[in-house]
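HUMAN: Now follow token order:
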Amino acid sequence: MQSKIDLLREINLKLLAEITELRKENAKIKAENAKLKYALEEHEARFTNLEQRDKEKTTLITKLDSDIRKIKQEQNAVNILTQSNNTSIPRSPNYSITSQSSILSSIEGGFKTIRLFY
């Protein structure tokens, strides 16, 4: 009977040592899990921020594309007007009109003045 009790005490001590070891491992795993959860939250926040910035950039690119299209349309309209004006002005082969213009900009007293010379 005494040997059975000694055997049970020995098994109990081994089980207590194993429980202590498992608790240490569990504490380490919980600490690592907490770190990973924190890292995941940080990455999710960064990802959300990047998505928002991506949306803002996409919106800006769309606006810039629209502005470029408008500028090109305006430039085409100006080119068409310029071409139609050039073809509608009758020119005499006997003389040629040459004009020289320059624009000088200067700032005087905080006001910008533009002078044209012909």
